[in-house]
Amino acid sequence: MEYIYKDPRFQTTCMYGVIFIVLGNLTGNAIAMGQYIMQAAGAPDSPEAVRGIAVAALTGACLIHGLWRNGGIVLNNVLALIKVLTLMAVIVIGFAAAGGANLGNGPVGKGAVEANFNTHKSFVRPNDDAGSYARSIVPKKRFAKATIATMIMVGVLFILANVAYLCAVPQDRILSTDLDMANVFFENVFGNEIAPRVMSAIIALSIFGNIVVMTFTASRVKQEIAKEGILPFSLFFARSTTTPYAWFKQRFWPSRSRVLEQSPAAALLLHWFFA
Asked: What is the rounded CA–CA span in Å between residue 124 and residue 114?
């Protein structure tokens, strides 16, 4: 775009950069997480509590990546594993219910298959981990293989999860409810109030995983935007700093490596402020 539209200078960079910095935040995700946590706790929906949880989630994600970069990556990998295992559990439970297994609410009929086109999506979505691969060894080669394998795996799991929903939830319930399909699924299969609350907690954890990985990615994109020199105090937001974990480790357990772990602390602060 910069090559095509050369006049005025930095027009494309400013259009993308300013919009991404101001609007490219995770506020909606954090609010949704707060709402699901309130549902999991069985507490009445309080806007103040939801906003407090949202601020805490955003602050925690920024602190994790700012204090210990590799720790944030490990946390994201753990949360991603939990999300995949949860998706597989939904598939197994749905097919077990369709096969007549009694999971607390008795066997479920198979007529729900007719509602196939009424189930648009499952309760989670794949994360964008492109920013993580940019920091890996041989990113071009690994990113291609990982992307293809991930898309195939996630695509198959999501299709099976939707089929599992249809196997476990009657058609009239799907058409009449305004609730999240995952909560309806667990409530219909297990037949009690605890199961939907547990599912709400799992969804909240899934959303937090999305916040963690997108904070990792967005902060680095904003750092690169600052390197273009279009922001006030660009040099400040463009620099990387040694993480406290790396400093502490080098202080008490020194190693021969002169390259210490770095994080875009200033860009993380910028990301947190607009979020």
From this structure: 23
